[in-house]
Description:
The chain is mostly beta strands. The chain has helices at 16-31, 161-167, and strands at 2-3, 9-10, 36-42, 48-55, 58-66, 72-79, 82-90, 96-103, 106-114, 120-127, 130-139, 142-150, 153-158. An 11-stranded antiparallel sheet has the order 3-4-5-6-7-8-9-10-11-12-13. Strands 1-2 form a two-stranded antiparallel sheet. A hairpin with a 5-residue loop joins strand 5 (58-66) and strand 6 (72-79). The radius of gyration is 27 Å and the shape is flat. The chain starts with a strand and ends in a 7-residue tail after the last helix.
Amino acid sequence: MITNKSNLSIKIYIKKEEVLLITCFFLFYCNSFGQKEYQKTYYNNGKIKKEGWLINDKKNGYWKFYHNNGVLKKEGRFKDDFPIKYWYFYRKNSYKEKEGHFIDGKQSKWWLYYDNEGFVNHKCQLKDNKKNGYCLLYDKNKLIKAVKFKNGKKIKEWTSFSSFRKENNMSDLK
């Protein structure tokens, strides 16, 4: 019974069935957010293999994967086991190999690829894991060639920047 200053009384009656219903709702509500745990796995040599967050046994949030020598192999975000957003990939010598965007688990937008010395050797526009747009090829950071792709198939190639500019809109390189 609850009483306020004006001596008005309110009685609250809850049936056993309502208590059970409220309890079930509360338990369902708490479990609907899933179980979140941080997972680390290791190679047989004791070096870390991967680490990151699991929610309901699916990779979610930021993850790191390692080569068997302990050097970082790749890092990026997951949502429900699919890579999303920006990722970085590394060689066993720790030099960057490539980096780029994932959308719904597929490579998309611009990707940068590095040579063994750490220089960008080409940049490509991708969509659904396929080259779709331009690839710009470099030699020691100097542009040497441009290639246009559509759905993974090569359409045209240019070996001079002036000829490329004459035939293409530079805003397509965004």
